[in-house]
């Protein structure tokens, strides 16, 4: 009788442990915080099922990299270096993250992207309307 109870308790404990470790708890959502400053690295799209990425043409040679700064206050700041003197223009808006969607609003223009990858070193997003992939690094 004692052995039967022990086996029953062990089986129940194992079942509860397995259920608590379900891989669909986050529905594929990454748990890395999105806030931070990201340097623009690459852009591209998917061609014949394959990602095709190139160095970001928006980055002007000889200047610091353009960037996206997602702040804790939900402010989104886009930094663009331009011209021979690498003049910095910053455009400020807001962002909202909902699961693996990132929506950035600047003025009356909003873009929503799928977060393809988010790690401590990289943010890769794909615009839901245009399909353009943008890769940033921290």
UniProtKB/TrEMBL annotation:
**Cross-referenced Pfam families:** Lipocalin_4
Keyword Signal set for record: yes
**Lipocalin-like domain span:** 77-125
- Which InterPro entries does UniProt cross-reference here? Lipocalin-like (IPR024311)
Going by the UniProt record, its keywords in alphabetical order are: Signal
Tell me the first and last residues of the signal peptide: 1-18
The entry's protein name is: Lipocalin-like domain-containing protein
Organism, per UniProt? Flavobacterium phragmitis
Supply the source organism's classification: Bacteria, Pseudomonadati, Bacteroidota, Flavobacteriia, Flavobacteriales
């Amino acid at each position: 009788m004692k052995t039967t109870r022990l086996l029953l308790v062990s089986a129940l404990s194992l079942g509860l442990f397995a259920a608590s470790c379900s891989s669909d708890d986050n529905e594929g959502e990454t748990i890395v915080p999105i806030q931070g400053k990201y340097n623009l690295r690459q852009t591209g799209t998917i061609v014949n099922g394959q990602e095709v990425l190139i160095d970001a043409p928006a980055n002007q040679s000889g200047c610091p990299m353009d960037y996206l700064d997602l702040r804790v206050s939900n402010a989104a700041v886009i930094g663009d270096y331009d011209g021979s003197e690498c003049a910095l223009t910053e455009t400020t808006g807001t962002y909202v993250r909902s699961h693996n969607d990132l929506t950035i609003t600047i003025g009356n223009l909003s873009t929503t992207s799928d977060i393809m990858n988010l790690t401590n070193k990289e943010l890769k997003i794909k615009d839901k309307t245009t399909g353009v992939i943008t890769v940033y690094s921290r």
